[in-house]
Amino acid sequence: MNEKESTKDKIIKTASRLFQMQGYHATGLNQIIKESGSPKGSLYYYFPDGKEQLALESLQVTAKFVLDQIVDGLQKSSEPVMAIQNLINDMAERFEKEGCKGGVPVASIALETSLISEPLRNACQLAYFSFQDAFTQKLISSGLEENRAIELGIAINSMVEGAFLLSFTMGNSQPLRMVAKQIPVLLK
């Protein structure tokens, strides 16, 4: 990796972490520069359109990371109930280890910017669609009818997102564990 890529990646990684933990509006460009250890000129060189462009690229990197985790987790079992339950329980374990330090990958940006930034709203929509589609494809591959799989993919992703929000609010992984427990009932 060359120096320019390294600096840009460092800025994106730092911005992603801060947006997840603090939200879009509470995260300033000066804080991102300071915490990334990058020269101020680098921010404007790599992200000439400013904070929104940086948030878009950070969101895309974060969404890909989350999607890769979902896909990898779902591939660990051919049986969809077991695969989805194990994935959610793995998420709960990561939450137990990391606590609230990790932040919510897409939700904070989605909630803060969906009414003020069409590009960020679209990026969040694409991220959530990709997560839902991973669940949908797992269900289709197990023989479930496509329309039903789409509905369940949306429901499962919504349950997981809601459980993460409740886990952060409650400070424990119990909501995630409860959602995992309900997957067999949902997929009957």
Automatic annotation (TrEMBL):
DNA-binding region per UniProt: 28-47
Q: Where is the signal peptide?
A: none
Q: Which InterPro entries match?
A: Homeodomain-like_sf, HTH_TetR, Tet_transcr_reg_TetR-rel_C_sf, YxaF_TetR_C
Where do the HTH tetR-type domain residues begin and end? 5-65
Please indicate if the UniProt record lists DNA-binding as a keyword: yes
Top-rank taxon = Bacteria
Q: Which GO terms describe its molecular function?
A: DNA binding
Alphabetized, the UniProt keywords read: DNA-binding, Transcription, Transcription regulation
Q: Which PANTHER family does the entry mention? A: HTH-TYPE TRANSCRIPTIONAL REGULATOR LMRA (PTHR47506:SF3), TRANSCRIPTIONAL REGULATORY PROTEIN (PTHR47506)
- The name this protein carries in UniProt is TetR family transcriptional regulator
